[in-house]
Amino acid sequence: MAYPSPGSSPAIPRSYASGRKRSTKGFGQNSYGQVFRPLKATTSEQVGVVAVYGDFRPIQHEVPRVLHLEAVSRYLPRRSHVFVDESKAGRYYIAAAVISPADVVATRSAIKSLRHKGSSAVHFKSERDAVRKAFLRGAALTGVKTVVYIVDGKPDKVARPACLEALIQDLCEAEAERFVLEQDDSLAATDRRIIHAELKAHGNTELEYRHMRRTEEPLLWVGDAVAWCFQKGGSWRAEVEPLIGEVRRL
């Protein structure tokens, strides 16, 4: 299956039925029928939870599509694409943002527009509060939701495998197409062993997975933002709420 490259522009399908013409210049729409306007913001480095691709298109002359997909949960529709990042201060968090494959290109473009001018990525740990809040508002307007996996009171070497195993099980049940983890050179080999073992245990030969750096995949920035906000707690937990679909404590 061919995947759109970061930064590429989505094509408008010819199969869309024409609807009543609306004044929607500057807006977009995802495959769930949600309308959004990309928000210009300043952000610089990365965010990554599991994020799903969202191909947002101009909506003049379009009728919202409806996804007829069974789901493990309402936030993990079948055939999803998922982007994952983590935070490990006290508790261990993995955030997974999920979107329909049809929504990949436009969501990536909208998220990419939220970084600082001249910066290569968004990284919440390094951002100013005003930048963080602007990013969260802009990401929420795309309609992206995340599933957050939490392990409390265990060392990282136990917590990370537990989160990954639960995530892979959910992705296999949802027949997800693809998921991406942020590249951490010190963890990549162990991650691959865990993922391979879980896929083998579930008899899954279809799920494509890979590690990517935050500068390579803007959709990782969403997970980074969500995981950081969960780790900080307080008012940041309320700020990130629009991006949260489900929380799973393991």
What are the defining features of this structure?
250 residues; two-stranded antiparallel sheet; 18% strand; Nucleotidyltransferase, domain 5; 8 strands
SSE layout and pairing:
Layout: E1 28-29, E2 35-36, E3 81-89, E4 91-99, H1 104-112, H2 129-141, E5 145-151, H3 156-173, E6 178-182, H4 188-201, E7 208-212, H5 220-232, H6 235-239, E8 244-249
Parallel strand pairs: 3-6, 5-8, 6-7
Antiparallel strand pairs: 1-2, 3-4, 4-5
Helix pairs in contact: 3-4
Descriptive overview:
It is a single chain. By secondary structure, the protein is of the alpha/beta class. The chain has one domain (30-249): 2-Layer Sandwich (Nucleotidyltransferase, domain 5), CATH 3.30.420. The protein has helices spanning 104-112, 129-141, 156-173, 188-201, 220-232, 235-239, and strands spanning 28-29, 35-36, 81-89, 91-99, 145-151, 178-182, 208-212, 244-249. Strand 6 (178-182), helix 4 (188-201) and strand 7 (208-212) form a beta-alpha-beta unit. Helix 3 crosses helix 4. The chain starts with 27 loop residues before the first strand and ends with a strand. The model is unreliable at 1-71 (pLDDT under 50).
Short description:
This protein is 29% helix and 18% strand.
